[in-house]
Amino acid sequence: MTGTTEDFDAIVVGAGPAGCAAAYRMSMAGLSVVLIERGETPGSKNLSGGVLYSAVLNELIPGFYETAPVERPITRHTTTFLTKEASCSLDYRSAGLGAPPYNAFSVLRAKFDEWFAGVAEQAGAFVMPGIRVDEPVVENGAVVGVRAGDDVLRAPVVVAADGANSFLAQAAGLRPRNAPKDVALGVKAIIRLPRHTIENRFGLVGDEGAACSFDGEVTAGMMGGGFLYTNIDSLSVGLVVRLDDLIESGAKASQLLADFLDHPLVQPLLRDGELAEYGAHLVPESGSAMTHRLFTDGMVVAGDAAGFAINSGLVVRGMDLAIGSGVCAADAIIQAKTLGDFSAHSLSAYQDRLEDGFVLKDLHTYARAPHFLDRHQLYSTYPEFLTQLLHGIFATDGTPRQHLVTVARRAMNDSGLRMSALMGDAVAAGRSL
Ligand SMILES: Cc1cc2nc3c(=O)[nH]c(=O)nc-3n(C[C@H](O)[C@H](O)[C@H](O)COP(=O)(O)OP(=O)(O)OC[C@H]3O[C@@H](n4cnc5c(N)ncnc54)[C@H](O)[C@@H]3O)c2cc1C
């Protein structure tokens, strides 16, 4: 594939949620689109498992969940603070979340991405799996295509949807290499269990699913947290830890994950499960996106490649932001095609659309989250305080009971929590999360 004329109206690199959404939207508008993916099949390079917050996909493809390989609609969200031997949880359940149009689904990416790329293909996109793009082709300062090995594909615009390390965006001068403070390392395992075991252990009825997050002991005091999501007949379980913390501590993510899976309060949830898959991947930290340029002559950057992910300590979101940005990229390109102008000036409509919609608004809302979550007491002192407080309330040892305020004061003393720190953290949490 070589040439000097244009082969397509648009080239999309990366068949993750961002690239598939962009390719689908542009194909539906009648543009000729190629979607290039380095994995042998879309999804094969993507770490399996996650919770897809689905409103944006339902807007793009109404009723998508009727044909998509989603696992379970999430009707239960729990947040658990862990110490070495105790835990304290917030448990939110709502049957309403389990009815159309649904709020979120657990998905396995190998199946989900393949489905999404298939939908883009049905809409007219030319899907090319098993091809690794090496670099953008730049002429007179504008991106005019991509090179893969000896082959060159040309189009007036390229969508860089190639994930958290996006070398395409780097090569086009839109962003620097990731610094350790701008990314977290996610390690994840898929544990197979019979579906009735999952439903019994998590108190689920039928297809319902649970999304559980864990803070505290799980990251050995480092910034990050654990998660456990129920699929139909497997659990996605893992940790996300900020890379600079991990490097500084010398800890191994694989050992942290092993310790998490062995934790006395987590292990019973996984008992008799069979390890089916294991992997690691980078996640952009909320806030890093604010520093990246999102477009240049002939190129826009979407999804993780642009740093669009949110880790609020309670939820990890990236897939819906990827889809939302893929749609905005597509709409800006459709407009640019009508104008016959793919300059940076014309493609700046991409940024306008992101700002008008939820993607950049949500990223702005959580821009201070990494700074707030950098407080190490969140992962040690608070779980200790909460579990000691609840121990003081529920445990009896034959001595006379004390009022709640005395129990709370003792828990604060024992955990080393100071009132001034508590107030400061509460205000900061309110402003950051
Ligand atoms: C452990 C972990 C847990 C997570 N949990 C959640 C969650 O619960 N909910 C949520 O919403 N998000 C979650 N995320 C984040 C989410 O996975 C990402 O934000 C999302 O996948 C971003 O989509 P994307 O399309 O931008 O990039 P990706 O999904 O990374 O897709 C990029 C694609 O580009 C391809 N590619 C890369 N380079 C090239 C190249 N040179 N040539 C051709 N193809 C290329 C890759 O193979 C890949 O298929 C999690 C991430 C991790 C690591």
Description:
The chain is of the alpha+beta class. The chain has three domains: 10-72 and 105-178 and 286-367, FAD/NAD(P)-binding domain, CATH 3.50.50; 181-284, 2-Layer Sandwich (D-Amino Acid Oxidase, Chain A, domain 2); 380-432, no CATH class. Helices cover 35% and strands 26% of the residues. The chain contains 16 helices and 20 strands. It has helices spanning 17-28, 55-60, 109-122, 167-171, 195-201, 243-249, 253-262, 267-270, 319-339, 344-347, 349-356, 358-365, 369-373, 381-394, 404-415, 419-432, and strands spanning 10-13, 33-37, 50-53, 70-82, 87-93, 104-107, 126-129, 135-139, 142-148, 151-154, 158-160, 183-192, 209-216, 224-230, 234-242, 274-284, 295-296, 299-301, 310-311, 316-317. The strands form four sheets. Strands 3, 4, 5, 6, 12, 13, 14, 15 and 16 form a nine-stranded mixed beta sheet that branches. A hairpin with a 2-residue loop joins strand 9 (142-148) and strand 10 (151-154). Helix 1 (17-28) runs parallel beside helix 3. The chain is globular and about 85 Å long. The termini are far apart. The mean pLDDT is 92. Bound molecules: flavin-adenine dinucleotide. Flavin-adenine dinucleotide binds next to helix 1, strand 2, strand 3, strand 12 and strand 15.
